Amino acid sequence: MRKTVPLFLLSSLFLLALESVAQPIYVAPSGNDKNPGTLQKPLATLTGARNRARLLRRQKPLTRPLEIVVRKGEYVLNEPLVLTTDDSGSETAPLVFKGEAGSTPVFYGGMRLNRFEKVSDDLWKTDVPDVRRYDWSFEQLYINGQRAIRAQTPNDGFFQPKTVTETVLSKGTGPFADFAAQKITVPLESLNWLSGLPEADLNQAVVTFYHNWDNTRKPVLAVSKADTALYITGEGMKPWNKITNQSLFVLENLKAALDAPGEWFLEKTGTLYYRPRPGETIDKITAFAPVNEKFVIIKGDETGGKRVKNIRFENLSFQIAGYRMSPFGVEPEQAAARVEATVQLDFADNIRFITCEIAHTGGSGIWFRRACANGRVERCYLHDLGASGVKIGETIIRPDSSELTHHITVDNNILRSGGYVFPCAVALIIFHGRDNVLSHNEIADFRYSGVSVGWVWGYAFSPSKRNRVEFNHIHHLGWGVLSDMGGVYTLGVSEGTVVSNNVIHHIYAFDYGGWGLYTDEGSTGIVLENNLVYACKSSGFHQHYGKDNLIRNNIFADNIKAQLQGTRVEPHRSFSFTNNIVYYNTGTLLSSNWAKFNLVTDQNCYWDARSKEPVFGKQSVQDWQLAGKDQHSIVANPGFVDPEAFDFRLKNTDVVNQIGFKPFDYSQAGVYGTMAWKNKARLDSAVAQEFDQMVAQHEKK
């Protein structure tokens, strides 16, 4: 006999189900945080919505996503959104911050400045009263969606020191002095900008040095016209990368240097001066000064190890964030490693950013730092950044291995134009982290490396394993201001790490470097395959030193100085180089100590389009093979469609079949999805042309 459920019981179950499904919480520009957060009475801020979500979660358990729907419009982010374990969702009921359908609401972490007035046709000014009221200052300014330049000299290019000497004031016990003064003897034309300045104005001036892979930013302590020198203080110079007469520098925050369109200067009185760019009109100008350095802080319980979990951000734009230099300046540090991000996560699990924008920042974009797992950045647009785009892991190895960041995926994003405050920042970097995936990203217009993986120098233990760097388009990096960089740069023992199916081109360093694929100190156990590398300065592939790396089935073509380079010779097998195509019409085939390496090299195709007879260092093909190298390799034109136009498709595969080369579709590198998204990823042709002009000028010298 079939039993029936009483109607009143069905109704009760239905009501319970409804109660477990939270209604969306709404945020709107016209909202008020005293409202209940309904569509009719929305809240005003993300923090208000967070508080409302906490209240709802305490009232009843949720079985469906709790959505905070942000209505179309612009918002001022007076303080960062802070999320803790109190805000965690569950896998079935995550907390979701999302823009309403069809819109991307914008949150500004800065204040809109007052209207400008003319001093003259080419100089405007405005008053920022909070500067004098609260002794506030800022170091970035954004005009009409573009980063303005704090008054600096020279406007183009750099100064160079004549000599650099250091006086140690406190040695300490480390490899460099705890405290020292540096005397920088400089050309008179650079010193003239500082001579005669009142001490208060002089101490506001900032000097930024570019030395190899680092930047040093310091306030100018004093000048000596008699010695033609400026003085800075701080830590002693690092013996592995000192400031020398081969370094570059610029002077910043000088009112006298306010002489070019796009430059600005802020007086302590609160008067801000700006020289307009061509086409800007005083009645159509939007100016933002950054107030916050961060947009979102997600931080779990460090003491108990409890994570913030299951939170998503969708269709939101975060713009305008700053960075203020310490009064003591910024010491050099590879990759600007400790520079924080506008979105910073610690002790966080399953936090996702989907179709979001981060723009106009003083620091980095997103950092999955300590004890993060299962995070995702997908289809986001990160641009006009002060430092890096996305950072993963910490720079220290914790004794508790459970705090190692892992399984972070950064897929199908555009990371473009960065390193404006910290040129040595890397666009996309994994410090200590395992099992992360960096895929299908568009990475361009940064001043240093595109991707960096690993953070141990040499053969000591490294926790960075099984990371994957694949299908990325990495290009137009370096800009001739720093050295020792790569499109993809690796460090340390990294078994299981794979770098594959990337397209890397137009990497240009100031001095040495500008490599496509760069296995640096101790890189071990890495597979580099199916990559296309061309138009890089020093070579397409360079190994400084490492062990048992596999470089196979790649195309290296038309790199400027050389195609292949190896530096430190070691007794163990450094790498295996097989099934690769090496084609060139400029530079040499090999550089440095490639011929002396302990390596396996075979089944490759080599072609010098000029002579048709590649030279292996100082050896002919026959002598090279008699020495036991490339026994089954061939010298032949691989048959690219149009290498001069960077079209490296193969017209046929008959030649490369002889070496076991497996053709790969390099057009799959970069972003995927709609045509609008792909078009957004394309580098502006004017930027590419500017890069080519820079390379041509450097190559003439």
From TrEMBL:
Residues 1-22 form the signal peptide. It holds the Pfam family Beta_helix. Residues 464-593 form the Right handed beta helix domain. It comes from the Bacteria. Keywords: Signal. InterPro entries: Beta_helix (IPR039448), PbH1 (IPR006626), Pectin_lyas_fold (IPR012334), Pectin_lyase_fold/virulence (IPR011050). SUPFAM superfamilies: Pectin lyase-like (SSF51126). The keyword Lyase does not apply. PANTHER family: RIGHT HANDED BETA HELIX DOMAIN-CONTAINING PROTEIN, SECRETED PROTEIN-RELATED. This is Right-handed parallel beta-helix repeat-containing protein. It comes from Larkinella knui.
